[in-house]
Design a protein that fits this description.
six-stranded mixed beta sheet; globular; Metallo-beta-lactamase, Chain A
């Protein structure tokens, strides 16, 4: 079908993240959506293994990357948008309201250089379209999880990031700085108003024991079985549920480290005078995480400044 892109999903088990290659079957032009840059918080090592697997898929299938795009500034992994954009010679993009999130985190990190739109080739406003062979990528604002969240609609397929998850998981949290549960509710209602035949691809999956990871769902399935949409809740009920649940959730393990990279389009900090790059960790800016059951000795606290192994500049954009 002319409006039916070929979708290949890539699941990142350490973070539950999902990245995608969406391609036009007629021309082989493709977009890479939400690619992950590996990071080990204990050692500070950065790696490109996951992103390289995506690039190898393009080579194997004879695809050409036109765009490498993020749906929002991710809090649980480092973005590989800049890395793959440079490696594949593709243009990069994200939603234009990323500037709102940059402003918030510029203050939290005391890092003025975050305030830049130069990290991407395009910043998209609702209704903008990117060419993808005979298809196009339409940007649809879907804030809530973050102020900068964007859904990408390609033909009959929507990449819905952190809005709706698989029905047995529910919906995304809405308690990060700049997030808003009411906006999330409204974004979900907008997604559910898409044509019933629209394929939905989620941004994460956290499968319960006994279920394999999954990522494709549908409008009909979400309306009928999503555990957070039972009884077709109104805005007030959904917001109350979402806020109560979010209060019980710890911050993502990588959030304070990842956002200073992802708000630079996936670029690592520039090396300092000693030739090494460092990440900032703001202290005493967030409430303590909810207590978790003790299963053994408490792990050591992370270092205040995490040293990153950058690799060669030609492979990891700084």
């Amino acid at each position: 079908m002319q409006d039916h892109p070929i979708v290949r999903a890539f699941h990142h088990p350490p973070t539950g993240s999902l990245a995608y290659v969406a391609s036009d079957p007629g021309t082989g032009r493709c977009a890479i959506i939400d690619p992950v840059l590996g990071f080990d918080r204990r050692s500070g090592q950065v790696d490109t293994q996951f992103a390289d697997t995506m690039a190898l898929h393009l080579q194997t299938e004879g695809l050409r990357a036109e765009w490498v795009i993020d749906t929002h500034p991710h809090a649980d992994h480092f973005s590989a948008v800049a890395y793959l954009g440079e490696r594949l010679g593709a243009r990069t993009a994200t939603g234009a309201t990323v500037t709102m999130v940059q402003e918030i985190w510029t203050k939290l990190y005391n890092l003025p250089e975050l305030r830049s739109t130069a990290w991407w080739d395009r910043l998209l406003i609702p209704g903008d379209r990117l060419e993808l062979g005979s298809l196009s990528i339409e940007a649809i604002a879907s804030p809530g999880h973050t102020a900068a969240s964007v859904t990408y609609l390609i033909g009959d397929t929507a990449f819905i990031h952190d809005t709706l998850f698989m029905p047995d998981i529910g919906t995304a949290r809405a308690d990060f700085p700049g997030a808003d549960a009411r906006a999330l509710y409204e974004s979900i209602q907008g997604l559910l108003s898409l044509p019933e035949g629209t394929r939905l691809f989620t941004g994460h999956d956290y499968p319960p024991e006994g279920r394999a990871a999954a990522w494709e769902t549908s409008i009909v399935q979400q309306r009928a079985t999503n555990i957070h949409l039972r009884g077709n809740p109104d805005a007030a009920s959904f917001i109350a549920m979402r806020q109560a649940r979010d209060q019980s959730l710890p911050l993502p393990d990588l959030m304070l480290l990842a956002l200073q990279v992802n708000l630079r389009g996936g670029r690592l900090p520039e090396p300092e005078a000693d030739g090494h790059a460092y990440l900032r960790l703001p202290l005493d800016r967030f409430a303590a995480a909810p207590a978790r059951p003790r299963t053994g000795a408490r792990p050591p606290s992370p270092p205040l400044r995490a040293r990153c192994a950058l690799g060669s500049p030609s492979r990891l954009p700084g």
